[in-house]
Amino acid sequence: MLLVKYLHYLEYDYQQEIRKRCSDLTMEELGCTVEPDIDFGVVMDASIYGGQVHYESTATPTLTPVVQEPEQLDDLVEMMDAIDDNSLLERGLIPKMMEWRSRIAQDYGICLTYGTSMKGCATMMGQICGLTNFLMWILTDPEPMGRLIDCWGRTSQRYIKALRKATGTSDDSTGFAFQSDVTGMLSNDMYTEFIKRHEHTMYCLFAPRKDDARYYHADYYMKHILPSLKEMGVNQVNIDPYIDCSAILQQLPECIIYGQIPPTSVLLYGSSEDVANCVRRDIDHAGPGHHLIVSTAGSINPGTSFNHLRTIVETARDYGRIYDNHL
């Protein structure tokens, strides 16, 4: 049963069947649909660096670390720098994604575009090196780790440009997004020293206009990273269920917050009253000014009840009216 549950990462037809069944349920229960799309879990971006993708029977796909020892870091940098832009799209899961994209266009008339988001640097370093190794080597072997992170910056620019060109993403796209849970495991000083300039450059390249969205997602503790997000011009966040909206807005006063309902302790395991209380709390903490999109601070877990999702919608609709005079 568990094997069937996660088969959708391997089988195109099964993935679209599951999405259609989910869409029928969400339409019946919540009045919204789930469209055909491609989901390869969290490893697609890092897969271009090598490393075998493992399809688990009880979990989402994982990537075998590409490097096992810090002495291998410079070899990986040399290899990635030698790959031309077009060849980047022939690596890892990208050919499979392009094949499935063609099938979705043929089967559903939907032309999927790519190149407006990717996994953040710290998360990809955890996938490329192994999380424990990354967090250790950035302290014990900072120079080769720094060179790999610099390579990530160069490679990411080429990768996103190639994806955008290959899938017809418009130069007028209105934003860029990072998803990087591992960022919060670094101190702000470490993030600043090794990573920030590269992610900032990506925002400047792919979300250059004042009104472009610069979105950052991270499930882990992120309060200490907020000063860096501010300096990078991040204006949309979905972060850290342990920080409240008012604390985020103190650092990022113009930010739009997607949050802050804890997806596990409250939405999955809590009561409907707990869920409603969180929605009211977040509305109160965000205050007037279009700063809050009521959401979970992270994913919605399997097993979450539709009743709890309805509670979010109904509470936001009813309680959100306290700010009608300010809108």
List keywords for this structure.
six-stranded parallel beta sheet, 50% helix, 327 residues, 2 domains, globular, single chain, alpha/beta, TIM Barrel, two-stranded antiparallel ribbon
Question: Topology, pairings included?
Answer:
Elements: H1 2-5, H2 12-30, E1 53-54, E2 62-63, H3 73-81, H4 85-88, H5 94-108, E3 117-119, H6 121-129, H7 131-140, H8 142-167, E4 175-179, H9 188-194, H10 196-206, E5 213-218, H11 226-231, E6 236-239, H12 245-251, E7 256-261, H13 263-268, H14 272-286, E8 292-296, H15 306-319
Parallel strand pairs: 3-4, 4-5, 5-6, 6-7, 7-8
Antiparallel strand pairs: 1-2
Strand order of the largest sheet: 3-4-5-6-7-8
Provide the structure class.
alpha/beta
Radius of gyration equals 20 Å
Element-level helix/strand string: HHEEHHHEHHHEHHEHEHEHHEH
| Ends distance | 49 Å
- Helical residue percent? 40-55%
Summed up, the helix count is 15
Please state the overall shape, judged from the principal axes of the Cα atoms: globular
Number of domains: 2
Highest CATH level, the class of the largest domain: Alpha Beta
Largest sheet: 6 strands, parallel
| Shape-level CATH architecture of the largest domain | Alpha-Beta Barrel
Descriptive account of the structure:
The chain is of the alpha/beta class and 327 residues long. The chain folds into two domains: 67-213, TIM Barrel; 241-327, no CATH class. The chain is 50% helix and 10% strand. The chain has helices spanning 2-5, 12-30, 73-81, 85-88, 94-108, 121-129, 131-140, 142-167, 188-194, 196-206, 226-231, 245-251, 263-268, 272-286, 306-319; strands at 53-54, 62-63, 117-119, 175-179, 213-218, 236-239, 256-261, 292-296. The strands form two sheets. A six-stranded parallel sheet has the order 3-4-5-6-7-8. Strands 1-2 form a two-stranded antiparallel sheet. Strand 5, helix 11 and strand 6 (236-239) form a beta-alpha-beta unit. The mean pLDDT is 93.
